[in-house]
């Protein structure tokens, strides 16, 4: 009876240890920016704004841009 | 040790994103491409000027599509892995697998579904080229707003949980999210550039397939990354009874 309460059983998940913010921050800043840059080239380059001249990037990812929901042209 | 854990999770996130991207690519090719082709046929039948083809259709619908979807998968996989590093142990009593699936479910909603309901995906020939700047700005604004509000709602829920209990704190946080998103829907400008006589069923099929692609991508990512993260963080088999010996670290 008393044993049926409070004791965590094998199926109770243990709360995982937190990763310290100091360990996450450098990765988050550097890779966060890098990943956003990738998303920019897939989603918006040579549409609303251009880093490179021409339409090659736009035309190459054209179908992906439409199907992933980005405004295309 | 901890920095190395973050790095390992990031690498696994990008790999899981690549894997999920492959699944999404299959969905995009078989569900989405037929609608894109139909929309392009409509466009060609209704426009008088003929644009020069820079990249052929057969390349756009295969290698081009693959490039876009896979890069998208890897990029969001990396970002989601970093968000996972932050969320793990901070959002509630969830293990790595459950945290990963919960996170990718929320990401599907915040990154895609919420912006999609206001500014849905459009097939070729829908959309005025002159307004691309405005539409891109609004779309990214909606995406950023939705993600920030989702984070704010999560923090609010965590703050309220001690006083209201987890259930009601979650209800209040979700209701707050829905309310502010509803206001954004009401006040942000409407975009409707569907040409006259564009087939409604084609538009519907295209948008459904766009939604399916994202569901496959985020669903696949949550399951694959959850598995990889679980194996990295809890190397022992899931059936082991080590659970009660180790108290939660503070």
Major beta sheet summary of chain B:
none
Look at the helices and sheets of chain B and give the structural class: mainly alpha
Radius of gyration of chain A: 23 Å
Strand portion of chain A, in percent? under 5%
Overall pLDDT level of chain B = 92
Q: Which word captures the global form of chain B?
A: globular
Number of E-state strands of chain B: 0
- How confident is the prediction overall: mean pLDDT of chain A? 84
- Enumerate the spans of chain A where pLDDT stays under 50 for 5 or more consecutive residues: 1-6
Content of β-strand of chain B: under 5%
Total separate domains of chain B:
2
InterPro entries (chain A): CbtB_put (IPR012667)
Pfam families (chain A): CbtB
Transmembrane segments (chain A): 24-42
Protein name (chain A): CbtB-domain containing protein
Notes on the structure:
- The complex is a heterodimer of chains A (73) and B (250).
- Chain A has 73 residues and is an all-alpha fold.
- Chain A has one domain (20-73).
- Chain A is 47% helix and 0% strand.
- Chain A has three helices and no strands.
- With 250 residues, chain B is mainly α.
- Chain B folds into two domains: 1-43 and 60-124 and 194-236; 127-192.
- Helices cover 75% and strands 0% of the residues of chain B.
- Chain B has six helices and no strands.
- Chain B has helices at 2-46, 57-87, 96-118, 132-164, 166-187, 200-233.
- The chains are: A mainly alpha (73), B mainly alpha (250).
- Chains A and B meet through helix 1, helix 2 and helix 3 of A and helix 1, helix 2, helix 3, helix 4 and helix 6 of B.
